């Protein structure tokens, strides 16, 4: 079995980094207090957000080492494994916000936490902060830490969770900014997505693999499915699923216009397992059945 260091409780992660535990379900961890250590694969059973303070190569994605500049946020969801095992030593720097899902029970954030897609982004899809944004994030951490240092009362949980939600909302805004400022990179991905679909429908993949899925396309473009989905939505106003469906319709119209293939053959060429599913999908989208579209188009 692969050697993975598992943290079930936030207190264990605090002890690992030489930090005091002030609350069993939430902590702002000063990574600078941690001892020098070797690279390890780690799994956390709670949400964790790293704010890297200086360049360091302690986080990896696959076999790649990423030197995150000062002011980079990396988001980890419960059960996720990050890092690589190795003999290389490093001194952790920066801060981490750790909070357990149980902290959110009975709060509005419990219903919204899944809407923050960046918790399922890959490590190499980190959020790179400007200096002003970094100060805002540190201020959010400071407010949470302040509440942890007070005697717990009936307001404590609400204030802590509200500040975590405020922090996450800022992160959502900053990711929106990053999608815009990295527009040249995003457009390159959009072009690759379009070319991927073009090549897919020219190949035998529709007959062997079926209709292309969002996860297949994201994987081919070396992106996590959620990051890919959010990026395409920002660029086009459509989800990747809608983009694929539009491509399917355009391909179907082209084949119906330019060939004598039967409706069944068109359906199979596009990756539909059952022709009736294709006919239903086409009519729902276009407003005409494939037969009606072909007949009217030829007149």
Automatic annotation (TrEMBL):
InterPro entries: Homeodomain-like_sf, HTH_AraC, Tscrpt_reg_AraC-type_HTH. SMART domains: HTH_ARAC. Residues 195-296 form the HTH araC/xylS-type domain. PROSITE patterns: HTH_ARAC_FAMILY_2 (PS01124). It holds the Pfam family HTH_18. Keywords: DNA-binding, Transcription, Transcription regulation. This is Helix-turn-helix domain-containing protein. It comes from Sphingobacterium daejeonense.
């Amino acid at each position: 079995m692969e050697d993975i260091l598992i943290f079930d409780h936030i207190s264990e992660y605090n002890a690992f980094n030489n930090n005091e535990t002030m609350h069993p379900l939430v902590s702002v961890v000063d990574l600078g207090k941690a001892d020098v250590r070797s690279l390890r694969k780690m799994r956390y059973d709670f949400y964790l957000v790293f704010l890297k303070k200086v360049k360091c190569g302690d986080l990896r994605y696959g076999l790649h080492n990423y030197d995150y500049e000062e002011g980079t946020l990396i988001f980890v969801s419960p059960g996720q494994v990050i890092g690589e095992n190795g003999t290389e030593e490093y001194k952790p720097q920066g801060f981490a916000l750790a909070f357990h899902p149980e902290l959110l029970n009975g709060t509005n954030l419990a219903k919204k936490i899944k809407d923050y897609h960046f918790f399922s982004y890959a490590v190499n899809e980190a959020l790179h902060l400007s200096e002003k944004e970094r100060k805002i994030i540190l201020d959010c951490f400071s407010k949470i830490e302040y509440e942890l240092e007070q005697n717990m009362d009936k307001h404590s949980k609400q204030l802590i969770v509200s500040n975590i939600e405020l922090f996450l909302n800022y992160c959502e805004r900053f990711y929106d900014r990053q999608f815009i400022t990295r527009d040249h990179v995003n457009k390159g991905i959009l072009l690759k997505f379009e070319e991927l679909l073009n090549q897919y429908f020219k190949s035998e993949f529709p007959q062997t693999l079926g209709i292309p899925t969002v996860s297949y396309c994201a994987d081919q473009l070396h992106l996590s499915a959620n990051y890919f989905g959010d990026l395409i939505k920002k660029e086009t106003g459509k989800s990747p699923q809608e983009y694929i469906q539009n491509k399917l319709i355009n391909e179907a119209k082209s084949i119906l216009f330019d060939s004598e293939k039967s409706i069944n053959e068109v359906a199979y060429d596009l990756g539909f397992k059952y022709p009736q599913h294709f006919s239903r999908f086409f009519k729902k989208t276009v407003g005409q059945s494939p037969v009606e579209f072909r007949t009217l188009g030829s007149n």
